[in-house]
Amino acid sequence: MAMEICTKTSLMPPPLFPIDEEKEAKTEHNSIVFDASILKYQSTIPSQFIWPDEEKPCAKPPELLVEAIDLGGFLSGDPLAVSNAARLVNEACRKHGFFLVVNHGVDARLVGEAHKNMDYFFNLSLSEKQRAQRKVGDHCGYASSFTGRFSTKLPWKETLSFRYCDDDQVSGIVEKYFLNVMGEDFEQFGKVYQQYCEAMSRLSLGIMELLGMSLGVGSKYFREFFKGNDSIMRLNYYPPCQKPNLTLGTGPHCDPTSLTILHQDQVSGLEVFVDEKWHSIAPNSEAFVVNIGDTFMALSNGIYKSCLHRAVVNRQSPRKSLAFFLCPKMEKVVRPPNGLVDGKNPRIYPDFTWSSLLEFTQKHYRADTKTLHVFSNWLQQKNN
Known about the structure:
The longest helix has 29 residues, at 187-215.
């Protein structure tokens, strides 16, 4: 039975439905409150957090051997390093869309400070964290699970999400957000994540050079496409759970964004669905885990895959991760370069803007493995 749970997952998309967040907000006072400081000790968990049998975690999934890409070697321009990195990324992204980057140039002290400040925030009382409460219809702010938005298959986690723009006209956007929302006590907190987001934006543009080379469209194409990116930073906190075999920290999904750059702490929990079974990705403090999202899958005309993944929890230790979701400017038209479209490889997805896909996942559809397919159909029906 355990092996069946490891190797099977529900891949059928739920029916398309509008997420009535105004209605949810009105009834939010009646919904369950996810207070990690209490729930992490409880021997039974609320039914809203219990997942279907076919989606429950397995005890010991095999480890996925993910390629570690020497990004510094690639960016140095050394021909052998460039060729090797492009080949490895191409193989990984055609198969499952996950790889690691090492020798990435991000200061380890900055990463350490980002983790330290995450500990500080999530150790605050629930009422303190709710000062940054996610507002109805918004994708940024503090969320204690998805209570108030969904009523079943709730994730065992807390998140804090905020916007980052690579645009001089909105410089210091992260610092200003925390000053406005949390007050002067969070000035240094905001500075740390402003610097972290800037580092992630630079890193993502380097990775875009690599992806362009690996797809044969040159190093500049995708780097230019994502200049001035309007991205999302998310702090994930997965508290201990006394019934970890019944729930998930994050349910199975593909990221609707373009690229995710993840830094894990030393607690395992990230799993990827490859070859019809779940695999774990071991933490590595010196590496970032990178995965392709739906938007970049569309940009590559379906050549590179947006992979199904999830997060599991455990009884003993909280797990934390830093996730930077690279996104283009809101009204940038997403379409593949001409070099990736021909008679043998016709267009798979229609033109769309990131703002329309973001709206779709916030108001109409709970992101899963079929998001881009369902979104494409929805968009074509909407435009007819």
